[in-house]
Amino acid sequence: MTKVLLTGGAGFIGSHTCLVLLETGHQLVVIDDFSNGSAEALRRVAELAGLGPWRQASAEHWTAAEPGGGSLTLLRGDVRSPRDLDRAFAITGGGISAVLHFAGLKAVGESMTQPLRYWDVNVTGTVQLLEAMGRHACQTLVFSSSATLYGTTDRVPIPETAPLQPINPYGYTKAAVERLLTDVATSDPGWRIALLRYFNPVGAHPSGRIGEDPNGLPNNLFPFLCQVAGGRRQHLEVFGGDWPTPDGTGVRDYLHVMDLAEGHGRALDVLQAEPPQMLTLNLGSGHGYSVLELVRSFETTNGLTLPYAVVERRPGDSAVSVADPREAERRMGWRTRRSLADICRDGWAWQSANPQGYGSNEGQPTGALIGAQQVS
Ligand code: UD1
Questions:
Q1: Which atom of ligand 1 is closest in space to residue 318's alpha carbon?
Q2: What residues in the chain have per-residue pLDDT under 50?
Q3: For residues 343 and 350, what is the distance between their CA atoms, to the nearest angstrom?
Q4: Domains of the chain by start residue, with CATH
Q5: What is the DSSP string of 97-121?
Q6: Distance of alpha carbon 250 from alpha carbon 61, whole angstroms
Q7: N or C: lower Cβ tally within 10 Å for the chain?
């Protein structure tokens, strides 16, 4: 049984990964500042994993555990803070053997107006994390990278060897962190690092208990479409009907978040089982679907009609982005197992049961959100 630290573990991908890792008996420590994540998500993760009640050990620290099995400890903290990171490594008595680094900012438009914030959280946050890993003798890291690194290439499908040409500050920070991690691995051959380049993660856990809960207006297609289906938004705007694709709308590689979460479990297993190395892998399905194909699949799967209007292209978009996922299959025996219909069914199960997501965290103490009992 390994003890793993997840930065940003209360977010969309982090929370689903927590569940997968708890189901395989891991002990987890999550550090999250709740800027785009929710304590309620982890309360539900603990419930789905069958963990016991939450215990509040201090003002910023809660634990749920199963006797003799998995455990989930949550610490409110910031990855840029050495003090918070040291606490995260020490909080359960030390012994953290690997880190999954999800914490980061990810909205492309916002990164263009607030580049300093993006460089600070995404790059400085990773530098601080690496320093803390050094202090706590931990050299295994799985990093949330992105297909955004490939920019607006026309190459289909995209292999890991394609040139990296990000086109916005968010993408530059992901490229900078990949470079940083490569330099760190070169400086000391003891490191075990996976750079996982996600394509378009969507869907939700099939229970409908956890899912994506973006702050404010969703930037991405799938959460927007779910909110239109639920009546929270009037109609979907399809960005461009004149792309060089079969139906004129943009084509993307959508992968179910549970497949992605399992990919993290596999990456961890491979890093821990094999000699130290760097893995750079695309995580995608290898299949592309257009905006209109996704809309139709959502409608057919869920028996709904989604109003939409085709509008101008969004600046910075590309026609097609599809992964070549063969290296992930070759290196870690992973490939997506869930279909577009599974994605649409599970996304709607989450949205229809939680029309306002997890509800607002604001003004509510985290202990109250997760229903923790105070312990001395
Ligand atoms: C976007 C980001 C990417 C980031 C990824 C995950 C841009 C240009 N790219 O990828 O850097 O890594 O999210 O956070 O922002 N679409 C609509 N209407 C909408 C929203 C999207 O038609 O309201 C279309 C887009 O034009 C695209 C497809 O849907 O063809 C998918 O868009 P989206 O979900 O935003 O993902 P990406 O653009 O692939």
A1: 30
A2: none
A3: 11
A4: 3-203+255-286+323-337+359-375 (3.40.50.720)
A5: -EEEE------HHHHHH-HHHHIII
A6: 44
A7: C
